[in-house]
Amino acid sequence: MAKIMRYFINLFFTIFLTLNIQHAWAAKLAIVIDDFGYRQHNEEQIISFSPNITIAVLPNSPNAKRIATIAHDSGNDVIIHLPMAPLGKQPLEKDTLFPSMNEAEVNRIVTSAVAKVPYAIGVNNHMGSLMTSNLTGMTNVMKVLSHYSMFFLDSKTIGKTQVKTAGGDYNIPVLTRDVFLDDQQKESAISQQFDLAVRLARKNGVAIAIGHPHPQTVNVLRSKIANLPVDIELTKLSQLVMPVSIPAQAPVKRKATLKDILGKCKKRIEEISNFKIEEE
Fold first, then answer.
1. pLDDT reported for residue 25
2. Other C-beta atoms lying within 10 Å of the C-beta of residue 132
3. Which of 26, 41, 179, 226 could pair covalently with 209 via S-S, beta carbons 3.0-4.6 A apart?
4. Measured over all CA atoms, what is the biggest interatomic distance in the chain, rounded to whole angstroms?
5. Strand ranges, E, within 44-162
6. Crossing angle of the two packed helices 40-49 and 64-73, in degrees rounded to 10
7. At residue 197, what are phi and psi to the nearest 5 degrees?
8. H/E stretch holding 174
9. Single pTM value for the model
10. 127: alpha, beta or left, given left = phi > 0 and alpha = psi -120 to 50?
11. Distance between CA 68 and CA 71 in Å, rounded?
12. In degrees, to the nearest 5, what angle opens at C-alpha 119 toward C-alphas 55 and 226?
């Protein structure tokens, strides 16, 4: 009887430990889908895939308020996909931000965007290579955002970005995109980019991928999220946000080690079963 009891306790202990280790050491992958507000059918499909997908809503799109509300009610993070001027000549959204705008104009546009996208907890840039590379322009944006307790995701459409510098001036947390999923709108290419994001997550512990609600992207996400590797955790973008600075008086908690987890599991099992697990 004692041997059978020991067998089942050890089996339970192994399963419990494996699940907890997998969760504690899983690499985190955040997926952000931009340009929400125009393609309702595709957008609702993406929302249905997982509450851990973050959606970025264009503030002047026709369905901005409705799709943001649907996403929020489904448990997804909502952020504002703020239009910013690119270096090249491309069709622009209404109220696209330019570096030449004064503080008052930037304030009007950003404040209006916040009002048009309910439940938004952050912002990322729509296009923006011209705007995000201009420190004065981005400082004006961050000054307005500092009133709303939001974070900023730099879509990183240009290498010489000033987003992090400007965000630091106003203590706004800044995240940075690692992978674009669908620069090429072919399922094979999108699948390769998704796999790249997974590899980067494994290498660095975290990765942020940005895509768009194209039909090809929808198809790839449906398959990839349903078959996500066990060592990858799909995570909300907000869960990656760290405060810019930590108060000096705040205690620093020691991270649990494998030895700690083993000890707690063993102690708890012995308490429940009233049976001591012998070391071998």
1. 75
2. 28
3. 179
4. 80
5. 54-57, 78-84, 120-127, 151-154
6. 20
7. -60, -40
8. strand 174-176
9. 0.80
10. left
11. 5
12. 30
